[in-house]
Amino acid sequence: MIGVFDIARPGSVAEASALLREHGPDAAIYAGGTELLILLKDRLLEPSLLVDIKHIPGLDAISLDPCGCLLRIGALATHREIERSETVRAALPELAATEANVANIRVRHAGTIGGNLSFAEPHSDPATLLIALGATIALESDAGRREVPAEDFFTGFLSTAREPEELLTEVLVPTVEPGTTVIYERFKIHERPSASLGLVMDIEGGKIGTARLVVGCIGERPVRMIRAEAMLAGQAPSPDLFATAAALVREETDPTVDAFESGDYKRQLAATLTLRALERATGSGATGGAR
Fold it and tell me: What is the pLDDT of residue 38?
């Protein structure tokens, strides 16, 4: 049973921010509502005011900067809109493919990218890939705007760098240069993925230039695998190299233990997905989407 609350429908980010500032912890942002409604029904969240931001103009826009180097996704864009956007499909097809596999069709029609990232559920599909892509999160309030790298946005279990009076308004995603491969892999047998892996890697002259490797869904937040990234850079791809990278990922991950999977099992999942992604990136089906 959901409790009693008022609903405010601000017409601007500044107005919404002022309401959040005024009501403090008694206010909650309402956009797609897919995560919020669960909390309300279970009485894990009992706000006296819902700030409905769905009517703020421009927050659902998806566009590519004139330079073609930056994809802008408004916070109110739904997973389904991102999945079907010709702009996203042309600029970052793996992102569109990943969005096509978020939850189920009902959730994708209602759930927004901003709500997904703000809720910071550890098993989020988009978060892992966006960190690998070097995305930036735009946060706005009545005091101004700031941008936070996606890898710094998620601070722990269901927690982010967003201040209470701020709104997540936009996700800024760099496009990739020719010759750079973008991969998203996941393992899923329950409602949400048990493990995920985002990889962005370029190869030039037979050697790996740079690699961004992010493990998600097994800990409290997605985490870059810095040691494995450094080990891969400048090396010629080979089965032995990829096996070593997978072993480093197994060591570097810090999984949570739950009723479904042990820590050792999750570490092995992360290592297996790393190996699979690296193999795809070097020619074994690298054009596919999230699984």
Answer: 81
